[in-house]
Amino acid sequence: MLIIAAAFIGIGCVDNEDTTTEDVTTEDVAEEATVSGEISVTGSTTVLPLSTLEAEAFMDEYPDAIITVKGGGSGVGIAALLDGTTEIAQASRSIKDSEVDEAQSNGINPVEHAIAWDGIAVVVNPENPVTEITFEDLKGIYTGTITNWAEVGGEDAEISVVGRDSSSGTYEYFKEEVLGDDVEFTENALALSDNGLVKESVVGNTQAIGYIGYAYLDENVKALALDAAGDGTLVEATPEMITSGEYPLARQLYYYTNGEPTGLAKEYIDYVFSATGQDVVSESGYFPVN
Fold first, then answer.
1. Maximum Cα–Cα distance for the chain, whole Å?
2. pLDDT at 233
3. CATH level 3 topology of 2-118+252-283
4. CA–CA separation, 285 vs 118, rounded Å?
5. Residue 206 burial (CB < 10 Å; 0-12/13-18/19+)?
6. What is the mean pLDDT of each run of 10 residues along the chain (290 residues)?
7. What residues contact residue 226 under an 8 Å CB cut-off, 6+ apart?
8. Start-end ranges of CATH 3.40.190.10 in the chain?
9. pLDDT at position 182, please?
């Protein structure tokens, strides 16, 4: 669990010709009274670094507020929202119908807030000569029908398959888009709890393949160009391709609240959607929604 400390805030100047000193004091006191308290943001490890930066920036501006940010996976976050142990669930996938049904039975009304764009990068070790892959071959690798890199244009070596655990929204999204709802991952796939561990596994194994959120992409891994249709049209994981929707594994990232947010949760989410908050989205390696 990450609890982020508060910092200094400055109060902006007001034109006294238009507003009386008494009015300014009353408004400032009212604002400070509302931007205070404590909430938690729980769930997706993909959204985790973004929420961490947003919470830090928010608390720099509002020192009486405490935002606690925790990971665990999208499913963990949504479950926490449904049982009332978090005010905001962070998710890298849309909420499932079954989760909506459970929420309603618990008297919870999940409201979705799309806060950023992301793209899932399919990555290999930089020493791997493979630079592109079709969805058909990707499905074969992750279902276990393709087991050697030579089958997809690489060297004669066994493929080490790395993925995410089933509580991950990235796992759910990748499964739906690449494998299909009724197809299961190979039992030989290494299921890891977060993006960072997937990247580390690929960095440390020249024969590994994995998938990670775009914000985790760096020079230590190589993102493969994707051919979704199998017609030779290759699309790379770049900001331009992701934000245009042309990249086949582009997706939105979400916050979920119980009903429309109020109090500190509303102040925080409004901040995330503000120009400053969307600048933080860019700084974190994701892409703004407005």
1. 78
2. 97
3. D-Maltodextrin-Binding Protein; domain 2 (3.40.190)
4. 9
5. middle
6. 38 38 44 79 94 98 97 95 97 95 96 96 98 98 98 98 93 94 93 94 98 93 97 96 94 97 97 98 92
7. 122, 132, 133, 134, 135, 138, 234, 235, 236, 237, 247, 248, 249
8. 2-118+252-283, 119-250
9. 86
**Assigned CATH for 119-250:** 3.40.190.10
Look at the pTM and tell me if it is higher than 0.90: no
For helices 275-283 and 48-61, give the axis angle rounded to 10 degrees.
Answer: 140
What pLDDT sits at residue 290? 81
**Which pLDDT score is estimated for 260?**
98
Q: With beta carbons less than 8 A apart as the criterion, state whether 281 and 116 touch.
A: yes
pLDDT value at residue 29: 44
Instruction: Dig out the tokens for 287 from the structure.
Output: 């892409």
Q: How far apart are CA 166 and CA 185, in angstroms?
A: 10
For residue 99, the one-letter residue type is E
Contact indicator for 63, 8 with CB cutoff of 8 Å:
yes
Measure the CA–CA gap between 245 and 239, rounded to whole angstroms: 10
The residues pairing with 256 across neighbouring beta strands, listed in sequence order, are: 89, 112
Q: How many other β-carbons are positioned within 10 Å of the β-carbon of residue 55?
A: 24
- In the numeric block, which tokens belong to residue 102? 């459970």
Report the C-alpha dihedral over residues 152, 182, 242, 267, rounded to 10 degrees: -150
pLDDT score of 34: 67
HSE (side-chain half, CA atoms, 13 Å) at 205:
18
